[in-house]
Each structure stands twice: as C-alpha cells, then as structure tokens.
Design brief:
Helices cover about 75% and strands about 0% of the residues. The radius of gyration is 18 Å and the shape is globular. Helix 2 crosses helix 3. It is mainly α.
C-alpha cells in the first residue's frame, strides 16, 4: 500500500498510516494462505484456527515457504498458536532468541492470555454491553495477578 493511500485511510479512520500498512501486509498474508488452501484461510478468518497477529506479521516478512508450512500445519492439525511458523536459524533455536521454545513458561502463558483477551475484547467491541467488557477486564486482571503470584 502506498503512502498516499495509507495517509488517506489513516485520517479517515483515526489510526496511524503505519497501522494501515501493517494491516495491509497481514491481509496480503491471509490472501496468500487462501491461494494455498481456501480451507486454511476460512479456518483463520472464522477463528477455528487461532493465529496471532505477530505470527501473521512474521509470515508477511518471511518467505513463501513459510506460508506453505503454516498451511500444511493447519491442514494436518499440527499448527500451534504462538509457534514461530517461519524459518529459524540454528542460532535462534540455541540462544532462545525469538524461538518460543526458548521462552520462559510464564512468557508463553502471558502471550496466550493476552491473545485470548484481545480476541474476546474484539468480539465485545461490536456490542454496547459495558457490563460484559468490565467482566472480561476483571477476568484478565485476575489472570494477570495469578501469573504474577506464580512468578514470585
């Protein structure tokens, strides 16, 4: 997406041009997944296969082989939400850099909780049910406090 279009859309929807461009890249990845498998694309869009925004951004920056690998994992049921999905070097795997296998258990739990909360909040944002939003926020806060206690 060129800068002019992103600027116009960002002004119209009151979000940054960078967000518009990032969302465009994510849309491109979902289109690429659909070219490999319409079923995998449908599973992502319906929420049946939950893939994080970060994973989609990594796919956008990665190689076509990474998209094919994710599609295969979705189709054979081995896709893990939060797994990198993109190629990693041996150095990443050994150093624990960005490889989720090298993450602390609390990091994985925090990521999962946050992704789940965002997913739920997006659904609630379409309604005007502030009681449900408050309940979701309270549940998230309680989960964070539990994680905090477990770390100490």
């Amino acid at each position: 997406m060129n800068g002019n279009t992103a600027s116009k859309l960002s002004a119209e929807y009151s979000i940054s041009p960078r967000t518009i461009r990032r969302d465009g890249e994510i849309a491109d990845v979902i289109i690429a997944i659909g070219k490999e498998s319409e079923e995998a694309k449908s599973n992502i869009l319906s929420g049946e296969t939950r893939i994080s925004r970060k994973q989609l951004q990594e796919l956008a920056a990665g190689k076509e082989d990474d998209v094919i690998r994710i599609v295969e994992q979705i189709q054979d049921g081995t896709f893990e939400r939060g797994s990198r999905g993109t190629s990693t070097s041996d150095d990443d795997a050994d150093s624990g850099g960005t490889n989720p296998a090298g993450m602390q258990p609390w990091e994985r739990e925090f990521g999962k909780m946050t992704d789940d909360f965002r997913y739920k909040l997006r659904g609630l944002a379409k309604t005007e049910d502030t009681t449900a939003v408050r309940s979701a926020l309270r549940l998230y806060i309680d989960m964070l406090e539990g994680l905090y206690r477990d770390i100490i």
